[in-house]
Amino acid sequence: MTTTTIAKGLEGVLFTETKLTFIDGTAGVLEHLGIPIQQWAEKSTFEELSFALLHARLPKADELAQFDAALKANRAVPAELVSLIEAFPKGVHPMQALRTAVSHLGLFDADAENITEEGRYALSVRLIAQFSTIIAAIARTQEGQPVVAPRADLTHAGNFLYMLTGKEPTEEQARLFDIALVLHVDHGMNASTFTAIATASTLSDMYSAITSAVGSLKGPLHGGANEAVMDMLDEIGTVDKAEAYITEKLDRKEKIMGVGHRVYKYFDPRSRVLRDYAAHVAEKEGKSDYYAILETIERVIVERLSSKGIYPNVDFYSGTVYSDLGIKKEFFTPIFALARISGWCASVNEYTLNNRILRPDAVYTGAREAAYVEIQDR
């Protein structure tokens, strides 16, 4: 008798090789191209990390300048797409809007069906550039405000904040948002990246692959935890109520959003970076209460759950950073997509170089050799 082990959620299943991202969940390590995420956050930019993942190497100065220029040259989106976004129903889920807009964008790209290595790369550059324009346009129109056109004299992060608010951000605000994007660019074979690869493995086009990824990220088990953290902070209200609130939830064995991770059994290294920035911004913006609540929650979680390998993850602090930058919580997940588009594209491009269609199997548990029963006899 053959014994079959089912890997629920595909946990531990290896299906490909990658040079892009390394994760050691036990030690709390995240590296891109072998470089720790802390160094990327401290020394690099979203543009440079995007190039590095697309090319699997660090760029030279002139290469990075050319890549940055290409992103800036591709920021504008077709007027027809802007009109569509403006026609979206008010109150629509931002990720629904993003999914629809990305799919629609492909209709206006004459090279959308180009699935050659060069074609996928060119589409990657356009998608990375235009995601920020699309997301900002969705946010503006949902607020009943006019769409703000992109500027070519700002960084990718700075330009997004400008298109979102209509005001040029300070250098510090732009840099803080840039760091947040860097921390979210790629994270191995997560659900949305795997979904993008699965779609692309059929030799479908890049827009279809990315639309699939957006649909996957929309699920609250993947992309919505940072929004839920902010809901929790608002529910707690003040720091003096935080310990009792979390203790009662733990006693009832309820899930704490922003805590625990499928991969990490130690502190998520991205959360350590964001914690420091969250503290700085909270103090500067006069929102130290939020940070004090998070500190209290983290202390209780570590005391109660660290023995089980449960610690705060990147979503734990990211929401407060986004909130202090003037981003509303319903757009936290689209911001996730704004960063992750580079990782999606890079992973699709890497996998399809040696493509094999993804086709897993399942253990059949139903009846065998059953007789068909006529409808009148059922």
Automatic annotation (TrEMBL):
Q: Which GO terms describe its cellular component?
A: cytosol
* Pfam families for this protein: Citrate_synt
Coiled-coil parts of chain: none
Q: Which InterPro entries does this one have?
A: 2-MeCitrate/Citrate_synth_II, Citrate_synth-like_lrg_a-sub, Citrate_synth-like_sm_a-sub, Citrate_synthase, Citrate_synthase_AS, Citrate_synthase_bac-typ, Citrate_synthase_sf
- Give the matching Gene3D superfamilies: Citrate Synthase, domain 1 (1.10.580.10), Cytochrome P450-Terp, domain 2 (1.10.230.10)
KW Lipid metabolism (keyword) present:
no
Indicate the residues that form the catalytic site: H261, D315
* Pathway assigned to this chain's UniProt record: Carbohydrate metabolism; tricarboxylic acid cycle
One GO BP annotation is:
carbohydrate metabolic process
Catalytic activities: oxaloacetate + acetyl-CoA + H2O = citrate + CoA + H(+)
What keywords does the record list, in alphabetical order?
Acyltransferase, Transferase, Tricarboxylic acid cycle
Superkingdom in the source lineage: Bacteria
What Gene Ontology terms describe what this protein does at the molecular function level? citrate synthase activity
Give the family per the record: Belongs to the citrate synthase family.
The identity of this protein, by name, is: Citrate synthase
Q: Which organism is it from?
A: Deinococcus maricopensis (strain DSM 21211 / LMG 22137 / NRRL B-23946 / LB-34)
